[in-house]
Please model this.
Amino acid sequence: MVLQDIKGERIQASINKGLFKKWRDFFEEFKMYTMSNFIVVDKMEKIKTTRNRWTLNFSHRTVVVRVENPSFSLEPFCLKPIPELLAAEKFDDSQLLDIIGEVVGKEDPRDIITSKGKETKRMVVVIADLDNNNLDCVLFGDMVDQIVPHLEDGRVEPLIMVLQFFKPSRWNDKVSVQSHFDVSKIHVNPDMKEVHDFRKSLLGSVTSNSVRISQVSGHGVQSGAAELKRGGVVVKSIEDALNSIEEGPIWIGGTIVSINAGNND
Model:
């Protein structure tokens, strides 16, 4: 879990398997608690939900009390402007981002098999900010089932979505973000100040009766030579690819040493 203080500083907290049953139903997202008696360790993780190098591990002595009357308001998202993502030359692969936008496009969901042989679902939705800057968002697994009921044909009300802890990437010179396992979350039309403010700015005093979400086709395969030349991608080894636990495209550099082809191939 990720904790945030009155100054907006964040730190990750972890509960091991031995204590998970004790705390499983205790916490509620976006509620305030006082906590004490942690074990502070250097988390040393490749993917970071915060910029803090430390993590708080629960122990048998950890004490948590819910605060019924919070002393300060919570701003749970560190929203990244879409233009900054689109203009970035390189991304920090270890940093996960929060983004808000209106869903303006969708692809049909499709079944895929991961590198570990696991069956899952993949779907791309397109979100736009208040200046009509578009960004592709790749969803995997249960997130596809979560968003599909909201994408009915003929929708005229804006569908606003907050992406939390998403990983930025560039593929074929196109910037997108994608969900990262169980860490990422999507909040669809949530009752939150950030969403209310976004909707108010989006609609103003004018109500639109036009269809807001369009169907888009899958992106075709393009040459990646320009990406390699500009250094905008990370080239991995075959061993890295085989050991990867992430879903999505991987660049591999290598030399063809043998071609096994028969007369009928």
Remarks:
- The two ends are 52 Å apart (CA to CA).
